[in-house]
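Deadline looming. Please check this record:
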Amino acid sequence: MNRKYRKTIIAGNWKMNKTLSETKAFAEELKPVLGKHKWCEVVLCVPFVNIPAAVRLFKDTRVAIGAENLHFEDHGAFTGEVSANMLKEVGVKYVIIGHSERREYYNETDFTVNKKVKAALEAGLHPIVCVGESLEQRELGVTSELITYQVKCALAGLDAAQARKIVIAYEPLWAIGTGKTATAEQAGEVCQTIRSIIRKEFGARVARAVTIQYGGSMNAKNAAELLAQPDVDGGLIGGAALKVPDFLQIINAANQE
């Protein structure tokens, strides 16, 4: 982490987990033990149906609420979809875009990711853009080329001011939900590559300001080591974000002076 230039962000991605009553129970358990977390921002990206309740439950805290997806159009005949403006109006601040599960199961492409990034920015939301490689791609030695392509596609057409509002989450596909985790050095290396891409596209000032998270099975045990890498500015947390003790330990790891 480098707090001199950029914000540290710990974001939980609940995926398709927790009912409304479970969301309330989570908030009631987390809030009394949360503390001030002065060094990092905490985000909870929850299922659409839980967003209004989450916003209300955490309104007296410094926890920001995020969504897990959006549509790139602002309205229209898109049954089952939700627009950026709809999310903004109910109090959403962040939105995950291009998560590997969206790419794998719902045909999300690098080009729809770019459209969604632009829609989110236009509505005043902060996109958390996911990029990452499969195990086969890593073993072929094309991680850097693939990440470069994904980042360039996601940020295509943006100006420097817009790029500064983006959060990039590096999520190696082979480390999501498998229990495997990239070593701190592997995570740091790819996050450094992402920052160098942003530097080439938008300049050094923007590159220094952009938060880059690690999103491959960060947990209570490995968070401190991963966050010690200079270009790892937080985490996009899956399973560990569903349990208050684990999520709190990750927040505390990011909140060390």
